[in-house]
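fyi for ur records
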Amino acid sequence: MRKIFLSLCLVAAVCLQAKPAFDFCLGGIYYRIDQNAALVTKGDAPYVGDVTIPEQIGTMAGEFAVTGIDAKAFYGSKTMTSVTYPATVTTIGENAFTGCESLKHFTISPQITFIAKSAFENSGLEELTIPATVANVGDDLCKNCKVLKRVVIENKQITEEQFANCPALESVTISDNVLTIKKKAFFKCTKLGAIDIPQSVTMIEERAFSGCTGLTEFHTSANLQVIRDEAFLNCSNIKTINLGASLTHIGKKAFSGTAVEQLSIPASIKTFGDGIFLNCKKLQSVELDNATLSDGEFQGCENLSQVVFNVVPNGIPKNVFNGCVALTAIPLPEGIRTIDYNAFHGCKGIKEITLPSTVEQIGNGAFSGCSALNHIRCLATQVPTTSGAAFSGIAKDGLRIEVPAVAVEAYKAAPGWKQFQPKEGQVFFPIE
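which gave:
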C-alpha cells in the first residue's frame, strides 16, 4: 500500500511539473489569462524572427484583450528580431526581453505605464526612449546591454543600475522631470563622454557614474544638494569638476581617482564622507571656502602644491594631506585647534611649517615622514600636546624650532618636543 501511495505521489509531481505556464497558443504566440485579460507569456520554445501581438484573441473560453507582456515572456529568444504590440498593452513584466540578443530596436508606446525589473537586461538594444507616460520603471532595466548607444529619458525615474555595464552607451538625454539618479545607474558606462544633469535633479546616489572613464567634466546643476558615496569613483578622465552653491553633502570617495586639476569647495557644503578626492593624482590646487575637512580628503594627491583656506577649518583631520608630496608649504590659519594623526604624513616637500597660536593638539604621525622639514614655527604660548611620533622621520640635524620667548623652556621640557633638544647646541629659538 505504501509503494502505491509513493508511486501516485511521483506521478502527481511529474504532472505538476509538466503543466505549461501558458493557457493558449495562437498564431505562434503564447498567452496566459489573468483577470479576464490576456498576457503574452513564455512558451515551450523561444520566439524567433518578427513577432506581432494582436489587440485581442478569441478562444473557446471567450475573447480577451491583450493587455500586457508577462514576466520572462521573451526571455532568451536570441533570434527574435522585432516585437510589434497594440495600444491595449500597458505593462511589461520582469525579464520580459532579457537575453534577446537580436532585438536591436523597441518602441515603448505612450500607453505603457509600468516596466518591471530587468525587462531588457542583456538584450541587443541599440537605442531606447522612455516616454514621460511610464510611471514606474524597475531596477536593472537595460543592465549589461553591450551595444546600447543612445538613451532618452523623458519620465521621472532613473532607477538602480538602470544602464549599468553598458560599455557602448555614448549619449544620454535626461528630462527635467528626474529628481534622483539612483545607485549605479550608469556604472561603468565607459564610452559616456558627457552628461548634462538637469536642474530638477537634487541627488546623485552611490556609484551612479562610477567607472565612467569617458567622462571628462562634471558640473552640478543649480538644485543639486547631495552627491552620495563613490558617485564618480575612478572616472579617471574627469579633469573639470564644478561644485555649485546648492550642494550640502558629498559622500566618501565621491571623486576619488579622477583627473581633476583644480578645485574650489563652496561654503554650502556642510558634511563630507572620507577620502572624497583620494588619489586624484593630477590635482594641483585647492581653494576651500567651507569650514569642514574630512578624513583623507586629499590623501595621495601627489601633485597637490597649493592649498588656500578662505575660512578657518574646524580642524585638520587625519590623513587629509597624507602623501601630498608636492606640497612645499601650507598656510594654517589662526583658529585651528587640532591637527590629527597622519594629517601631513609623507609630505616630503614641506620644508617649513607655521603652527597657529590656537593649536592645542598634534596627533601621532601628523608630520611623520616629512623628511625635508627643518623649520617649525609654533606660535602657541601653551605648548600643544603631542608625542614623539608626531614628527618622526624628520631630520634633527639643522632643525630649527621657533616658539614664543616666554615658552621656550616649556617646549624644551614638554613630551613630544624635548626629544629635539640636543645635549649640545640649540634647536629651540624665541620668535623674533
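The longest helix spans residues 2-18. thats all i got for now
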